[in-house]
Amino acid sequence: MFDSNRLEEIDPYTTMHIREKVKQLIKRRKFPPHMEDDLVQELSLDFLLRRPKYDPARKASRETFTVRVVRNQIASMLRARRARVRDYRRNGCSLDESVDSGEGAPVARHET
Question: What is the number of helices (H) and of strands (E) in the chain?
Fold first, then answer.
C-alpha cells in the first residue's frame, strides 16, 4: 500500500488522517477498493500543494488546516464523480428504442 511509497515530507498526523478518510470513503462505497492507493496519493499531493498557504497567524492549528484541506478535496472528488457528464450510474440507451407511451402503443423514446 502507501507505506512502501511514503512521502517523508508529510507529517504523521496528516498521513494518518488521509488514510482514515480513504478507508471511510471505501467503506461507505463512495469509491471502489482498488482505488485506495490512488486516493491516498491524490489527497497527499493536494495537501502538499496547499501546505505553503498555511498561516499560523490565522489562529488555526496545523491539524485544523489539514482536516479542512482533506475535507475540501474529498468533497471536490465526490462532486466530480457524481457530475452528470461522468456519472458512472447513468445507463446508456438508444433514442430509437421503443417504449410504452402510456396509451398502450409503443413509440420511439425520443418522441416521449
Answer: 3, 2
CB distance 43 to 35 below 8 Å: no
Rounded CA-CA distance 41/35 in Å is 10
The sign one gets for the Cα dihedral 13, 71, 47, 39 is positive
What is the pLDDT at residue 81?
82
Other C-beta atoms closer than 10 Å to the C-beta of 5 total 10
Return all residues near 97 (Cβ < 8 A) that are at least 6 apart. 108, 109
Burial of residue 67 (number of CB atoms within 10 Å: 0-12, 13-18, 19+):
middle
Kindly report whether the global pTM for this prediction surpasses the value 0.85. no
Q: What is the pLDDT of residues 65-79, one digit of tens each?
A: 999 999 999 999 999
Here the cell at position 96 is 430509437
* 65 backbone dihedrals φ, ψ, rounded to 5°: -60, -45
